[in-house]
Design goal:
- The complex is a heterodimer of chains A (about 325) and B (about 375).
- Chain A is of the alpha+beta class.
- Chain A has 3 domains: about 5-60; about 80-160, Butyryl-CoA Dehydrogenase, subunit A, domain 2, CATH 2.40.110; about 180-320, Up-down Bundle (Butyryl-CoA Dehydrogenase, subunit A, domain 3), CATH 1.20.140.10.
- Chain A has helices at about 5-20, 25-30, 35-55, 60-70, 180-215, 225-250, 255-280, 280-285, 290-300, 305-320, and strands spanning about 80-85, 95, 100-105, 115-120, 120-125, 135, 145-155, 215, 220.
- In chain A, strand 2 and strand 3 (about 100-105) form a beta hairpin.
- The relative contact order of chain A is 0.12.
- Chain B has helices spanning about 10-20, 40-55, 75-85, 90-105, 110-120, 235-270, 275-300, 310-330, 335-340, 345-355, 365-375; strands at about 125-130, 145-150, 150-160, 170-175, 185-195, 200-205, 215-225, 230.
- The longest helix of chain B is centred in the middle third of the chain and has 34 residues, at about 235-270.
- Chain B has 3 domains: about 10-125, Butyryl-Coa Dehydrogenase, subunit A, domain 1 (Orthogonal Bundle); about 130-235, Butyryl-CoA Dehydrogenase, subunit A, domain 2 (Beta Barrel), CATH 2.40.110.10; about 235-375, Butyryl-CoA Dehydrogenase, subunit A, domain 3 (Up-down Bundle), CATH 1.20.140.
- Chain B is globular.
- Chain B contains 11 helices and 8 strands.
- Chain B has a 4-stranded mixed beta sheet.
- The relative contact order of chain B is 0.09.
- The chains are: A alpha+beta (about 325), B alpha+beta (about 375).
- At the A-B interface, helix 5, strand 9, helix 6, helix 7 and helix 10 of A face helix 3, helix 6, helix 7, helix 8 and helix 11 of B.
- The structure holds flavin-adenine dinucleotide.
- The site of flavin-adenine dinucleotide (FAD) has 18 residues of chain B, from strand 1 and helix 11.
């Protein structure tokens, strides 16, 4: 476990590292001694990295590292082709005769030669050479996400690294079942929850600063009760989601990770609704930072199942008779 | 005998769980949570509390000086979690015991030594008499007077909305011992037995028809001065200490109850459409957020930390979870909620969850605390600053 002071120092270094977003986040984190940091306290370190990333609106491919690490494929590749938001948790690729249909998202330009991709029920590694991408566009073009939409030859697969689908997991001992896509999704969802919450906290800070300095009717608008209460409500939502994300690490199940990501998504929606209202016209202008936080939070919510999709899925399971799981809180 | 150090909360959980499962059929009466009347629900809860006490499970979490076996709030939190996990009700009296118990131990150890075990084991009922007709959100304006006369305090005034009040053996009250305008500086906490002459208690029926609350009248009631909880005029500090448990442990208990409601709702609802699934899933998620947050708060309380204004977020999350869950029940049980006599339990629960943003510091009061003391926003113009 990392103590408060070490964690503070770590956050400082991460913040510094993210102010000039490194093209190769994996290498930059490695320089920081990330492997040792993870070994010491993976939940705290991951939470710090993604909260800072959200707070500073930086985009990196750090999420890829989380999934690749979970899958134990770190020696093979460092990148992931994520399912398109429309497809929730995937897959991002399907076999189609001798070919493979890819539709997914990459978080930044594919400079590596290979990438992980959820293929049907399995996890595959593909060669990325010649794979064309184009900017995703949409709500938050600044995120720099790219769309992959292609059909490739099946021999682009690197067979040895296929999990499931009859292949063998790299680095997996005999008799162990290798971590699968579901585990990678769970790890990524915990990270995304923290990133969404980093964005949300920043939105509360931006709005708080605005209502302290902006005066109307002779007083700071932040002294009006309805303005104060909106921000307090946003704060409470963030506090609940933050606690749940921490619990999702303790609990460790994909279910808990899904719940945490959904609750973070709902919290962000609450926060930005209130923040936009209390910032008035300024909050809706291009120059003011709020719209970026609105965009980024919604974009992050869309990846690997939105809050709404997850609620629907979990509610469906409850209706089908699942006893409501009590997330392990430690 | 084992000490708390010997019995970790995880061992406690495991032992308790197997005991509950072994006694599944004997415990069946405690599975029904929709009793016909509040008094029946209280009686059922007291019986369960007695069984748990006699089997020692309920003695964990309370200090030896108060008849317990040691350990602390974490043992109690596990008890409620496991009861709920087995679909059993939580003793109604424990909602109050969790709010009042630790404050009694801390500020009146002698009273705790003599009386607390009877309360926690379900032999006695205590109630919390803070609110008055003129002192709701502005609790520091309370007027029930207590005047020292020899070895007694003579109490006159009125309390209202006292949960379990008409069944109570003792009332944990806040009374004015300072000057009328002394506000929080002139308040004391006093434990008043309801069988003392001059105490009159009248049931106060809730909108649902639930006979849970009461009005308590005090007409020159002589209360021994050794029933003071904390020092004279130090009652506000007692109340603030106790509020931490109301925000932490009470919320934890309510989350257990809500999880049970979701379980029963899912079992009753026939619909399988995505809108219903989404609403139910979202309600469940609000309960999960409450669970995670109140667990963290209970852990801090167990470690002896003061929780402070941050705990107002817990109360906001509690109200959100309660109201979202029962609003979802209302929608998913359409039209039974509106038309079916058998759905009275759901209607009653729906009404009760409306109070979650009113009692123990309303939603507005909590948001104001967060705005002032956590977010440090500008003070409301013309509003008296909290002293
Ligand atoms: C089911 C239930 C059980 C209860 N059990 C107990 C009990 O066991 N013991 C006990 O002592 N009390 C109990 N209470 C009383 C409860 O604590 C009070 O209802 C509560 O303190 C609010 O007081 P009030 O009802 O007088 O509302 P008021 O204070 O009159 O408030 C009414 C509305 O005005 C708002 N308001 C008030 N002041 C402000 C402000 N400054 N800014 C913005 N809005 C404001 C409130 O938020 C609320 O929405 C219970 C109440 C209920 C409903």
């Amino acid at each position: 476990m990392m103590d408060e002071e070490t964690l503070g120092l770590l956050r400082g270094s991460l913040r510094q590292l993210l102010t000039t977003p490194p093209a190769d986040i994996a290498a930059a984190l490695a320089d920081l001694g990330w492997a040792e940091v993870l070994a010491e306290d993976e939940p705290a370190a991951t939470t710090a990295l993604f909260e800072e990333q959200g707070d500073t609106l930086t985009t990196t491919a750090a999420l890829d590292g989380v999934a690749v690490g979970t899958l134990g494929l770190g020696s093979v590749t460092s990148r992931v082709i994520w399912p398109h938001p429309a497809d929730g948790t995937g897959p991002a690729a399907l076999r189609d005769g001798g070919r493979i249909r890819l539709r997914g998202i990459v978080l930044s330009a594919l400079t590596d030669e290979t990438a992980v991709v959820p293929l049907g029920d399995a996890v595959a590694v593909v060669r990325t050479g010649g794979l064309s991408t184009r900017p995703l566009g949409g709500l938050d073009p600044d995120a720099g996400w790219l769309l992959v939409d292609a059909a490739i030859d099946a021999d682009t697969l690197i067979d040895a690294a296929i999990h499931g689908d009859g292949g063998v997991g790299v680095g997996v001992g005999v008799g162990e079942s290798p971590p699968g896509w579901e585990d990678a999704v769970a790890a990524a969802r915990r990270a995304l929850a923290s990133e969404i919450l980093g964005v949300s906290r920043r939105a509360l800070i931006v709005a708080g600063d605005h209502v302290r300095s902006r005066k109307q009717f002779g007083r700071a608008i932040g002294s009006y009760q309805s303005v104060r209460h909106r921000l307090a409500e946003g704060h409470a939502a963030v506090v609940g989601a933050t606690a749940l994300t921490a619990s999702a690490w303790v609990d460790g199940t994909p279910w808990a990770a899904a719940t945490a990501k959904a609750v973070a998504g709902w919290a962000h929606a609450d926060v930005v609704r209130h923040a936009m209202q209390v910032c008035g016209g300024m909050g809706l202008s291009e120059e003011f930072p709020l719209h970026r936080l609105v965009r980024r939070g919604y974009l992050l919510d869309s990846l690997l199942g939105s809050a709404r999709m997850i609620a629907r899925e979990q509610g469906g399971e409850l209706l089908a008779g699942l006893d409501p799981p009590g997330i392990v809180v430690g | 005998m084992l000490t708390a150090e010997d019995l970790s909360t995880e061992d406690y959980r495991a032992g308790l769980r197997s005991w509950l499962i072994e006694r599944q059929s004997a415990l069946a009466p405690y599975r029904s949570t929709h009793a016909a009347t509040h008094a029946e629900l209280v009686t059922l809860g007291r019986q369960l509390a007695r069984e748990l006490w006699d089997a020692d499970w309920k003695r964990w979490g309370w200090p030896r000086d108060a008849g317990g076996l040691g350990g602390g709030p974490l043992h109690r939190a596990v008890l409620y979690d496991e009861l709920g996990g087995q679909g059993l009700l939580l003793p109604e009296t424990d909602y109050v015991a969790e709010v009042l118990g630790d404050a009694t131990i801390r500020f009146a150890p002698e009273i705790a030594r003599k009386l607390l075990a009877d309360f926690v084991s379900g032999r006695e009922i205590w109630a919390q008499g803070f609110s008055e007709p003129e002192a709701g959100s502005d609790l520091a304006s309370l007027r029930t007077r207590a005047v020292r006369d020899g070895d007694d305090y003579v109490v006159s005034g009125q309390k209202i909305w006292t949960s379990n009040g008409y069944l109570a053996d003792r009332l944990f009250t806040l009374v004015r011992t300072g000057t009328p305008d002394s506000r929080h500086r002139g308040i004391s906490a006093l434990l008043i037995d309801t069988d003392i002459p001059g105490v009159t208690i009248r049931p106060l029926t809730y909108a649902s028809g639930l006979d849970e609350m009461a009005e308590c009248f005090f007409d020159d009631v002589r209360v021994p001065a050794d029933r003071l909880i904390g020092a004279e005029n130090a009652g506000w500090g007692v109340a603030m200490f106790l509020l931490q448990f109301e925000r932490g442990m009470y919320a934890w208990m309510r989350h257990v109850w809500l999880r049970g409601r979701i379980r029963e709702l899912a079992a009753q609802v026939k619909a399988t459409d995505t809108a219903s699934a989404e609403a139910l899933g979202r309600a469940y998620q609000t309960v999960c957020a409450l669970r995670a947050r109140s667990a963290a708060t209970v852990r801090r309380l167990a470690a002896g930390e003061m929780v402070g204004p941050e705990a107002s977020a817990d109360k906001v999350l509690l109200a959100t979870a309660e109201q979202t869950t029962l609003d979802t029940a209302r929608q998913l049980l359409f039209p039974a909620f509106e038309t079916d006599p058998a759905a009275e339990g759901w209607r009653s629960d729906w009404w009760y969850t409306r109070a979650a943003s009113v009692y123990g510091g309303s939603g507005e009061v909590q948001r104001t605390i967060l705005a002032d003391r956590v977010l440090h926003l500008p003070a409301e113009d013309g509003r008296e600053r909290k002293g």
